[in-house]
Amino acid sequence: MTVLTDLTLKAALDGLASKSFSAEELTRAHVAAVEAARPLNAFILETPDKAVDMAKASDARRARGEAGRLDGAPLGIKDLFCTEGVRTTACSKILGDFKPTYESTVTANLWRDGAVMLGKLNLDEFAMGSSNETSAFGPVVNPWKIDRELTPGGSSGGSAAAVAAGLCLGATATDTGGSIRQPASFTGTVGIKPTYGRCSRWGIVAFASSLDQAGPIARTVEDAAILMTSMAGHDVKDSTSLDVEVPDFSQFVGKSVKGLRIGIPKQYRVDGMPAEIEKLWEQGIAWLKEAGCEIVEVSLPHTKYALPAYYIIAPAEASSNLARYDGMRYGLRVEGANLTETYENSRAAGFGEEVKRRILIGTYVLSAGYYDAYYLKALKVRRRIADDFDQAFGKVDALLTPTAPSAAFGLGENADDPLAMYLNDIFTVTVNLAGLPGMSLPGGLDAQGLPLGLQLIGRPLDEGTLFSLGGAIEKAADFQAKPAKWW
Ligand code: GLN
């Protein structure tokens, strides 16, 4: 018997099309899976009634022959995406029980194509973190468990955990410095951060506007391609959204990669990189060679400045974006004796520790005396990093690196050490700084039996090549492992 929650998105869409099961049956199976998985804390808001209503409407559309690309597919939505009439918190106390009066463009695109919403997914507060531990709703537990509970990565920890655990067929996520790719790597899932501007940021709670980008997390490369085809597109409501055609990305999966040139950036062989990550990388290189790619060593000389630059630029933009939470318009308000005190009380009570740290760093680097020394300098470094990639892409079609410097770590293990936590982003932030597309996909398991991810980085707007290369690696890796269902 088919277990509906074990299907890939593609198989589920095929099953719906051939009437093997209805959208309502598919949705009810996922609603039950979500309920049974509460110990994972992946969903912070379940919307089962809405899901069943949407599924029934989908079945009716299909009966009329009007089914869209994703019709009847149950998805999870990161709680950074505004959903009309449905509580949206960014996992911060400061948003209280904010119910947006509008829908984000990305989620609107998914509903336009017939997808079904199962609920809202946990994340690090305002997407700031690499372990989902800064969430006001508590951490997500990685479905992959060894002798102890592990983090699913962050900030899209809820999205990655829900997809890995079979609670939804795919999920929306966002990536400012690695938040789609690192959680995908920690959970054995596929995540792609598109080129900056591919997906509209309208209606997504802003973290660092020049870096934020939405993308999908899914169980296969093809599923990610199907989701991204719906999510992407030009939007007049976001001035940085790109007015370019959106191809059907699934057509790139399975395409030959013969003759493609793959760059291996030597600066990503960082000191202290675990031997297993090194081995995974070598394995990825071997797979692409076997598939007919040419491997070329490339140099990205400014890589070592990427983390410091990111941790100046991202907090600077965050401090500005978060200025709007003042207790006046929406969300939490803690009264004081006067206006200033009300601001202070509301922000003191509403923001968590990591968010406050970012606001302090951000306001500091933007302040009159330090702007040139820090913020402006970081912008110059950003330019250099983008130039490095430009040069490399003169010689190669894509780059291959590990996604993260380790497998999933234990809950609480890095929580008191911000610098150790920031190091997680060492291979991912460069991609956001340069605005490039980046994909993470599972390459294998480490000695403890935990998934490890490989990252592919592409030219601007060349997600198609990433889907082709991802398809080739996926085929070679034949990653069938699933977390044991302990919850
Ligand atoms: N871990 C990074 C940070 O904390 C990236 C987060 C993200 O991509 N949203 O800023």
Mean pLDDT: 97
Poorly predicted sequence stretches spanning 5 or more consecutive residues: none
Can you identify the CATH class of the domain at 4-255?
Answer: Alpha Beta
At the fourth level of CATH, the homologous superfamily of the domain at 4-255 is: Amidase signature (AS) domain
Spatial order of the strands forming the largest sheet: 4-6-5-10-11-9-7-8
Largest beta-sheet characterization: 8 strands, mixed
By DSSP, the count of extended strands is 11
End-to-end separation in angstroms reads 22 Å
* Percent helix range: 25-40%
- The tally of helices reads 15
- Broad shape: globular
In terms of quaternary structure, what is this?
single chain
| Attached small molecules | glutamine
Structural class from helices and strands? alpha/beta
Return the CATH topology of the domain at 4-255.
Amidase signature (AS) enzymes
Strand content: 5-15%
Instruction: Tell me which CATH architecture of the domain at 4-255 applies here.
Output: Alpha-Beta Complex
Order of helices and strands: HHEHEHEHEHEEHEHEHHHHEHHEEH
